[in-house]
Specification:
The protein has 336 residues and is mainly α. The protein has 15 helices and two strands. The chain has a domain at 69-193 and 244-331: Na+/H+ antiporter like fold. It has a two-stranded antiparallel ribbon with strand order 1-2. Helix 5 (76-101) packs parallel to helix 8 (134-166). The longest helix is centred in the middle third of the chain and has 33 residues, at 134-166.
Length: 336
């Protein structure tokens, strides 16, 4: 019952939690659950956001269905094509939107981070509602996630340190900061917090029947609650700042551009309509929670970067829910 309520009204719970995070200091309770300190273990230092993302990915890995992955593996060219479409179209759309609307500094970086991160687990759920091919959606999410340590840092480096500086979107400080070492560090972060937990969760679910039952019962709930908390913490980090209204139009452009890119890519690859719906949703929905984590680690002095990722979560969830209802209606009509 709780899982259905959480999933069905995810955008509402996300909104309420973020409002609570924004106004929490007004309650005068003396503690703040939305300001998460880092944990220093002596040997290494890890942020709570990294722990949250790793926990989310552990649950996602535990929920990956073997039969569906085998089915998708037989159609690997279509999965590879869809993943390429996502990693090519979204960063390009983010850069074009930034240029068109004149975004600079942390807002440009935030927009590029939104465009570079892979698809989110929510796309699998929305694909099911849209009567799309869920197996194909799972394959796309898995493929993009496993490739993220290699593609995301390099794409960000190209956008921020090279193109952003050339076009005047970022200053020399960001260019000198986002160097080769940061690219390597970010790749390591993504490997440890994204790829490794996914592999571990998948293995645990195959080895341990008890863990598999736990994941099936609580995995989706845990992943959704953690993502809500991550976004709320990003909102809390921007208390006292004015809401960046100038980000609404470029984010909508990127979001709707992603849905359009998915549709065009599906046509180009001659996918059936169920896979076309899955690709549309997959490309338009980005893992902004992962973007918030990366922003908190690598752009600590620019909290607006994380806020951009948090804002995109609201936007893509809202438009995604509307889109899948339209796609579902069209699918029902065609089958009638």
């Amino acid at each position: 019952m709780f899982r259905k309520l959480l999933t069905k009204f995810l955008i509402i719970w996300l909104t309420l939690t973020c409002v609570l995070a924004w106004y929490w200091p007004n309650f005068g309770l003396g503690f703040d659950p939305f300001i998460q300190p880092s944990i220093d273990c002596g040997i290494f230092k890890i942020s709570m956001a990294e722990i949250y993302i790793a926990l989310t990915m552990l649950m996602i890995g535990s929920l990956l269905p073997v039969d569906e992955l085998r089915s998708v593996a037989k159609q690997w060219p279509q999965v590879a094509g869809g993943t390429c479409a996502q990693y090519l179209s979204m960063p390009l759309l983010a850069f074009l939107a930034s240029c068109i609307f004149g975004l600079e500094g942390p807002y440009f970086i935030g927009m590029m981070l939104v465009g570079c991160v892979p698809g989110a687990m929510a796309s699998n759920m929305l694909t099911m509602i849209a009567r799309g091919n869920v197996s194909y959606s799972v394959g796309l999410t898995t493929s993009a996630t496993l490739l993220s340590p290699f593609i995301v840092p390099m794409t960000l480096y190209l956008a921020i340190a090279i193109l952003g500086t050339y076009f005047g979107c970022t200053d020399s400080a960001n260019q000198s900061y986002f160097n080769g070492q940061v690219v390597i560090d970010m790749a390591k972060t993504l490997l440890l917090t994204v790829v490794l937990p996914v592999g571990l969760g998948f293995s645990l679910a195959r080895i341990s029947a008890r863990w598999n039952r736990f994941a099936q019962n609580f995995g989706e709930i845990t992943a959704n609650l953690v993502i809500i908390l991550i976004i709320a913490c990003a909102v809390a980090g921007n208390r006292g700042k004015s809401f960046p209204m100038q980000m609404l139009a470029p984010m909508l452009l990127v979001n709707f551009g992603g849905y359009t890119a998915g549709f065009l890519a599906a046509k180009l690859m001659k996918l059936d309509m169920r896979k076309a719906r899955a690709l549309m949703v997959e490309i338009g929905m980005q893992n902004a929670g992962l973007g918030v984590m990366l922003a908190g680690i690598y752009f600590k002095t620019q909290p607006e970067v994380a806020l951009c990722c948090a804002m995109y979560t609201f936007g893509c969830m809202f438009t995604g829910i509307i889109l899948v209802q339209i796609l579902r209606y069209l699918a029902d009509r065609s089958e009638a």
